Amino acid sequence: MQDEERTVIISSHGLSDLERFADNVGMIKSGRLLLEGPTGELMERFKSVDFVTESGSAFTPPEGLFVQKHEDNRWQTLVDTQKASLEFLTERGARQVTTAPVTLEDVFVALAGESRL
Question: Distance (Å, rounded) from C-alpha 68 to C-alpha 39?
Fold first, then answer.
């Protein structure tokens, strides 16, 4: 591996380990490729975004926004910044918007789960 002339394929559920040493990752669920690309780019592409809305039920999440938790007017989400912008959220009434980095596990859980409303 040190000469970088080889490719090593690792199938693992230990995403925190892969995050540290894998140059590229692919996420598969039920035989379907959900996501693939350079690890660093994927980690930058997705953001954990929390916000509040005036009326929680009136907010319709756009494509690329995965709801992790929603209670009243408080939303905890994961956002694919290639599909949904933070500006979209503020234009639709999101307030107190905060962002944080994500882990590969956060991304996989959002993409593979049924968390999208």
Answer: 22
In sequence order, what E strands does 2-92 have? 24-29, 32-38, 46-52, 65-71, 74-80
Which H helix or E strand runs over 31? none
The token duo for 8 is 């090593």
CB 78 within 8 A of CB 103: no
pLDDT in tens, 36-93: 999 999 989 999 999 998 875 667 788 899 988 988 889 999 999 999 888 888 888 8
d(CA 113, CA 116): 8
Q: Can you tell me whether residue 95 is helix, strand or coil?
A: strand
